[in-house]
Design goal:
The structure is a homodimer of 243-residue chains.
Chain A: E1 2-8, H1 19-27, E2 30-34, H2 35-41, E3 49-53, H3 58-70, E4 75-79, H4 89-96, E5 102-107, H5 112-120, E6 121-122, E7 128-132, H6 140-152, E8 156-160, H7 170-178, E9 187-192, E10 200-205, H8 206-210, E11 218-222, E12 228-230, E13 233-235
Parallel strand pairs in A: 1-4, 1-5, 2-3, 2-4, 6-13, 7-8
Antiparallel strand pairs in A: 8-11, 9-10, 9-11, 12-13
Amino acid sequence: MNKIYVVGIGPGAYDQMTGKAIKALNDSDVIIGYTVYVDLVKEYFADKEFMTTPMKKEVDRCVLAFEEAEKGKTVSMICSGDAGVYGMAGLMYEVGKDYPNTELTIIPGVTAATGGAAVLGAPLIHDFCLISLSDLLTPWEKIEKRLLCASEADFVICLYNPSSKKRHDYLQKACDLMMQHKSPDTVCGIVGHIAREGECEKVMTLKELRDTEVDMFTTVFIGNSQTKKIGGKMVTPRGYKGV
Amino acid sequence: MNKIYVVGIGPGAYDQMTGKAIKALNDSDVIIGYTVYVDLVKEYFADKEFMTTPMKKEVDRCVLAFEEAEKGKTVSMICSGDAGVYGMAGLMYEVGKDYPNTELTIIPGVTAATGGAAVLGAPLIHDFCLISLSDLLTPWEKIEKRLLCASEADFVICLYNPSSKKRHDYLQKACDLMMQHKSPDTVCGIVGHIAREGECEKVMTLKELRDTEVDMFTTVFIGNSQTKKIGGKMVTPRGYKGV
């Protein structure tokens, strides 16, 4: 049986990888990933073979991993954050249907929602939703529906991919939708470059978030009706019945 | 400034802790937590002082941490999974209002949603919600509303605390609510004792899940309309526009 690890390397810093992820990479002959993620780990696994494919070439990247495994190499496919949260784990199973002699092992990691939450304080704590604003593979109507339903049910919402060159006004559109159900004064926060050089965070209201420019390396948090600001931190209580 | 780390130790196994979490525990004089979690880490940090409080004594546990920190000790408050996902990070900020000379550092970890997902395959991948079925601090009407809204918007749903002695029929009630919008054939999965002794998983339909008994150590996953079973694994695609 050939072996591929699909590894979540966490938000970026080496010390936010799990022991299991480090062991998988050490056990591998070749480490495959998107260029940016490979650059994050390269220095710590200097004796390994590295292979990259650019963004939007995810299927090619999966095929590459299976082809290398078929040569008898142990392969790690790396993803930033968690391998199963907007990561490669799903596509690897789909492409893997053509490679029945290869076994996949998924190794979880710290995703941007929890990595970013730790920087802001404690914004999640209770029930929350992750929503990606990228409409590359999802119709925008579906994203709209999710923003509305999640707001109506008073979830804390964490947004991935809040912006890109082509989608510079998506966060603004999302905030307008959420404000149909959430107060403009809802406590929100943004974190950029989590656990990497240039990490930065800011707590603000939903109204202010609407008019904030963010880039694709930003993770956005919108509180629920109970979320508050305590000493500059964004904090959601455990429930609705007091401490 | 006194120092407290609020540390997510991951789902259970030592090798699923991050390097940063291990370092925080090594740097600490005293490690505080719920008895079950302290037992999970005790053997790896044998030279530390350990203090525990039972379940439902979370406020006491926070006060204990701040009191120990005021004595000049470096304290780690540990949580299973991630410190900010149904963890102690929020309550620590709230209780911390009375202890202005103590600084909190939150250290994220692998939460049951992503740890369990890795065992089942790739159930999350796309937009998802976490919902706790515990109505200890949240009115059941709020939980119902969230189950309905999340189902209506075709989120993948991950349920925490799906059952307890007093709430043995909550999962059944939740499944009935979700089936108002999700097909009874929706692919679902359960994982028990993630990354601990006795880890077990099962993939089934939503209709089957409704009649399944689970315990409080189980994490439950309900797919979206695209989720499928591939080679026994639960896999959600990246979007709605094909691979």
